[in-house]
């Protein structure tokens, strides 16, 4: 390969050496897979057209977040302390409304789905409670759709930045999110069908928990008994992240659940 660089041959910068090593390895492994699987020209053309369609359909963020982000996260988690995290995914939007410690996420007056109260405490690694911490939360509704990405969901639905109160505590009313399928009309869905893979993720809450002087935690919470917990297309479920909410008695039209979950943040290394 020809390098366009100011460095003399053999004098690569550390960054060039890292890009060289990684890109060379990736290209080599793909070439080896072509050999190992005896790829034909027809198959090569099909893959090429699929890759082009992924770009045209704007599905590269989806491809990366579903099939690769979990590995980067697992690597990063090795050197992190505190609560478990998992992938960010493609549906985070910044600047959700700020909400007090006892609150409800913005939702439709007739928001479908079972009700959920999530309460808990944000603490530092040494146990110090963190008042004024932020839980930036977003989730799909019971229908599995995210606001900002689906035309029938009102803007800002089920998104909010909750500020912890005294003793770092919070209590958020929301709905139980439904299972989510990656868009199945586009090239990613096409790949799932072609390979016989499930396109589903178990229902989940997304959170970025942050506090002054601490490393922000990007995580998701799942629900015991949910379909797809063991077959998440994005491979992002961890046992520590699975909730078992208790059902409150007396739910009439909707079931009501509540659960406690605490978050432990690692102090930032300065
Ligand atoms: C994807 C969607 C999610 O809701 C998520 O949490 C992770 C990944 C995706 O479609 O890529
Ligand atoms: Fe998600």
Describe the structure.
A hairpin with a 6-residue loop joins strand 9 (205-210) and strand 10 (217-223). It is globular and about 65 Å long. The longest helix is centred in the N-terminal third of the chain and has 23 residues, at 14-36. It has five helices and 14 strands. It has two domains: 14-56, no CATH class; 72-265, Protocatechuate 3,4-Dioxygenase, subunit A, CATH 2.60.130.10. The chain has helices at 14-36, 41-56, 60-67, 69-77, 187-195; strands spanning 98-99, 102-104, 115-124, 134-139, 159-163, 169-175, 180-181, 200-201, 205-210, 217-223, 242-243, 246-247, 256-260, 263-265. With 270 residues, it is of the alpha/beta class. Bound molecules: 3,4-dihydroxybenzoic acid and fe (iii) ion (FE). 3,4-dihydroxybenzoic acid binds next to helix 3. Residues 89, 91, 180, 204, 206 line the site of fe (iii) ion.
List the defining traits of the structure above.
270 residues; alpha/beta; Protocatechuate 3,4-Dioxygenase, subunit A; 2 domains; six-stranded mixed beta sheet; 24% helix; binds fe (iii) ion
| Uncertain parts | none
| End-to-end CA span | 40 Å
Question: And the CATH topology of the largest domain?
Answer: Protocatechuate 3,4-Dioxygenase, subunit A
> Main sheet: which strands, in order across?
1-5-4-9-10-11
Number of helices: 5
CATH homologous group name of the largest domain: Aromatic compound dioxygenase
- Total DSSP E strands: 14
Shape: globular
- Which molecules are bound besides the chains? 3,4-dihydroxybenzoic acid, fe (iii) ion
Strand and helix order? HHHHEEEEEEEHEEEEEEE
What number of structural domains do the residues give?
2
CATH C-level class of the largest domain is Mainly Beta
In helices, the fraction of residues equals 10-25%
CATH 2nd-level architecture of the largest domain: Sandwich
User: Please, what is the average pLDDT?
Assistant: 95
The main sheet comes to: 6 strands, mixed
Strand residue percentage: 15-25%
């Amino acid at each position: 390969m020809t390098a366009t660089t100011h460095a003399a041959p053999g004098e690569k910068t550390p960054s060039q050496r890292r890009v060289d090593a990684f890109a060379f390895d990736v290209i080599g492994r793909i070439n080896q897979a072509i050999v190992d699987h005896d790829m034909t020209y027809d198959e090569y053309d099909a893959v090429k057209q699929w890759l082009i369609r992924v770009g045209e359909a704007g599905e590269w963020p989806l491809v990366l977040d579903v099939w690769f982000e979990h590995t980067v996260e697992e690597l990063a988690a090795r050197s992190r302390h505190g609560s478990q995290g998992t992938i960010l995914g493609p549906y985070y939007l910044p600047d959700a409304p700020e909400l007090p410690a006892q609150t409800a996420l913005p939702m439709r007056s007739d928001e479908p789905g079972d009700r959920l109260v999530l309460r808990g405490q944000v603490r530092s690694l040494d146990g110090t409670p963190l008042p004024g911490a932020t839980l930036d939360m977003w989730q799909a509704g019971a229908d599995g759709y995210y606001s900002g990405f689906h035309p029938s969901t009102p803007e800002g639905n089920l998104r909010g930045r909750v500020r912890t109160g005294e003793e770092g505590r919070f209590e958020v009313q929301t709905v139980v999110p439904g299972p989510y399928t990656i868009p199945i009309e586009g090239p990613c869905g096409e790949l799932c069908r072609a390979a016989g893979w499930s396109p589903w993720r178990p229902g989940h809450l997304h959170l970025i928990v942050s506090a002054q002087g601490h490393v922000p935690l990007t995580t998701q919470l799942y629900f015991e008994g949910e379909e797809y917990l063991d077959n998440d297309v994005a491979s992002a479920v961890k046992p520590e992240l699975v909730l078992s909410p208790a059902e409150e008695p007396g739910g009439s039209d909707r079931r009501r659940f509540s659960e406690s979950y605490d978050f432990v943040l690692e102090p930032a290394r300065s």
